[in-house]
Amino acid sequence: MIQLFHVHKQYAGEAPALLDVTLGVEKGEFVFLTGPSGAGKSTLMRLVFCAEAATSGQILVFGRNVAKVKPSQIPYLRRSIGVVFQDFKLLPDRTVAENVAFPLEVRGLPAREVRRKVDAILRSVGLELKGGKFPLALSGGEQQRVAVARALVGDPALLLADEPTGNLDPERTLEVMDLLHAANARGTTVLVATHDRSLLERYKKRVVALERGRVAADGAEIRRTGRA
Ligand code: ADP
Ligand code: ADP
After folding, report:
1. I want to staple 18 with a disulfide (CB 3.0 to 4.6 A). Which of 9, 34, 58, 141 is the partner?
2. Percent of the chain with pLDDT over 70
3. Can you tell me the distance from the alpha carbon of 126 to that of 107, in angstroms, rounded to the nearest whole number?
């Protein structure tokens, strides 16, 4: 589903954000990407989403070398990827329901179908009463759940979530994690960046730990040794 081979990413005038990262994520996996702030988690996700290009190395997403995907083809690749950005990236001039509907409308789904799916996903994130509100009228935690709903509404093959529970209280955190699990059970491959160790301890999933741009550990045993 995702393969990185010796990937380096260097922003101008900075220490490398990613350093010789080789990593594979199989179809159907649920993987936590962890590590301290600045370790390179967001950068890795942006590379997979084609929001940035690697400085060197190779990245395959759905078996396609992203460096060879034409800019005009990137939107098609992204249709199969749901993303929860750290800063949500909700459209401020559209309602919650319109924000969530957006990925379906881009695909040209019939209006009835869009409405049905949007209603269902808003219910599942507990926002069925907020569909007509604008994002800025919502709390940070509610905006985060809108972002999760938008990422999941199209049943993406791959979900990239950058600190999707970062602004949520423990109860809402579990609800969002349940949604990610349910999506994974339906076949979505899930990659979650988090520095919340309690999540890693609670869910027995593969953990890839980044440290200063390198893969410092990869596997289920990181939980037990507490190195994540
Ligand atoms: P994390 O998500 O683990 O906090 P990031 O991928 O955001 O890590 O950052 C990795 C490193 O790359 C940090 O040193 C950060 O300052 C730097 N970085 C991230 N984005 C940019 C950017 N757009 N321009 C320059 N440096 C960046
Ligand atoms: P975090 O490090 O908390 O994961 P992000 O990587 O999401 O934060 O960064 C937030 C925004 O700031 C992104 O648009 C990123 O490109 C930008 N950014 C991060 N670090 C730098 C940096 N050192 N210089 C310039 N832009 C940066």
Report:
1. 9
2. 96
3. 25
CATH of domain 1-78+198-228: 3.40.50.300
Q: What residues form DSSP beta bridges with 161?
A: 84, 192
Q: How far apart are CA 42 and CA 105, in angstroms?
A: 27
Instruction: Read off the pLDDT of each residue in 73-87 and give the average, rounded to a whole number.
Output: 92
Which of 10, 41, 42, 212 has most ligand 2 atoms within 8 Å of CB, for mutation? 42
Distances (CA, A) of 151 to 10, 80, 112, 158, 199: 28, 10, 19, 10, 20
ipTM above 0.90, yes or no: no
Return the structure tokens found at 94.
């559209």
Helices 140-152 and 111-124, packing angle to 10 deg: 130
Q: Grade residue 40 by pLDDT with cuts at 50, 70 and 90.
A: very high
Cβ proximity of 48 and 59 under 8 Å? yes
Pocket test for ligand 1, best of 14, 34, 196, 214 (most atoms within 8 A of CB): 14
What tokens were used for 130? 């907020």
Q: 203 CA to middle of ligand 1, Å?
A: 27
User: Which tokens go with 53?
Assistant: 């290009």
Q: Six-digit token pair at 174?
A: 């579990």
Ligand 1 centroid to Cα of residue 44, in Å, is 10
Determine whether 224 is exposed, middle or buried from the number of CB atoms within 10 Å of its CB (0-12, 13-18, 19+).
exposed
Question: 168: which 2 tokens?
Answer: 């949520």
> Which residues form the pocket of ligand 1, taking CB atoms under 6 Å from any ligand atom?
11, 14, 17, 35, 37-43
